[in-house]
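Quick start: what a row looks like.
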Amino acid sequence: MFTERTSVGLDVHARSVAAAAIDGVTGELVQAKLTPSYEHIRSWVSQLAGPVAVAYEAGPTGFGLHRQLTAAGIRCEVVAPSKLQKPSGDRVKTDAKDAVHLARLLRLDEVTAVSIPTVAQEAARDLVRAREDCRADLMRARHRLSKLLLRHGIVYSGGDAWTSKHDAWLRHEARTQLTATAGRATEMTFEFDYEHALTTKARRDRLDAAIEELAADSEFTPIVRRLGCLRGISTLTGFALAVEVGDWHRFTGNTIGSFVGLVPSEYSSGASRVQGSITKTGNTHVRRLLVEAAWHHRARYLVGKTMRDRWALAPAEARARGDEGNRRLHARWVKFIERRKRPTIANVAIARELAGWCWSLAVLEE
């Protein structure tokens, strides 16, 4: 419940901040145009009739302002933009109006705050997202190279692509064929695309090594080791899940699926109930990791060396729960196959349940 006298809404941008303050006693509205300096914002807020509560939307400016105001003893909420209530008929949008709207919603306690990571958690999240960006860059670089060769009728048929054997084929046979059939410009394009793919892969490998090192000795290590008791959750995946979700205690086994957008959309009214495809809201990175990990549970469940090595690092209760989850998820896959469900649809259902098992292990006490 809102208890402060003054509610403040801030529309924060890189070079300017629109501020609006509503005094709950007098009803007075105060507006100002501020610089993005934390000290300037804090000084302006401290001049208002207290106590004061502040809200601004989550965005690229990060959580530095929240930390500065909180350190000064001012309650600050970082609001989820997708959860803000806005009139459907309002067709005028300005920074000043957004700041007033935020102040009013804060006054009514109708804002949904996001979870604020610590400085260490935010740094680890930046590293994980840098690796995710590098993965996407590598995929695009490889596609450009393979499609360049395809346009000239050069196709690799020696097995899986992007292996050491495929790399040797690119350096010798593919380059020779391209040189014989295409001009100098195309040959130069091949060289640039091949070099870009190699450098991007090297950058991804360096990021993988950095994440592995951090996952082995950080505040996330216990969670990563517990999550590793499930099939499809490697060290990289477990660390990414740990830093992206942050505080797992915000959720339950049922609500974690909706947080990552793996629950069906619904359009129901009166006696009719219509469910559609998944909502795809929330954290896209976490959803992709869970969907990829869910495919691992389709194959017959056998406890191999890799799984035993992960279990050796986890407590006994986590090993038992992980084994139970692996058996349960494979059994669910078998039922979907028997019912002739489309594999992609079945996998999303498995991913949603896998999210619940991950939550179960993340909140497990040591």
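That is the whole record. The domain at 6-107 is CATH 3.30.420.10 (Nucleotidyltransferase; domain 5). The two ends are 34 Å apart (CA to CA).
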